[in-house]
Structures are given as structure tokens and as C-alpha cells.
Sequence to fold (62 residues):
Amino acid sequence: MNCLRCNVRMTPASMGLLRLRVTPPGRSRMRKGVETSVHVCPRCGHVELTVSTPQSFVVPEE
Fold:
């Protein structure tokens, strides 16, 4: 994966489990963590964070 800012190859990093909350109107908060993939650009410091289950963040249309 290359950096979106300076096109340098990014270095994989470790972050463990990240707890994110989704709070759409009228819905309860997401309580589970999601597995993440983290990459860091060694030139500019840009961090790319990707979740393993993006469908967990889909908010149904009302």
C-alpha cells in the first residue's frame, strides 16, 4: 500500500483492537471493538486505518 499523500510505500503497524462507536439517531451505540489494519508512511507520517468489517458501520436509511 502506498501513501495517498506522497506515494511512498507504507509500513504496517500494530494497534490491537480499536473500539469505535457508531451512534446513528435512534440507535444504540456499538459496544464491540473491530479488528483494524494500520499502515504508517515513513516520510510524512500519514496513518491509514482500515477496519476488517466495514459493514458494521452501515447506517440504514430511514
In short: The CA atoms of residues 10 and 42 lie 7 Å apart. The chain has one domain: 1-21+30-56. The mean pLDDT is 80.
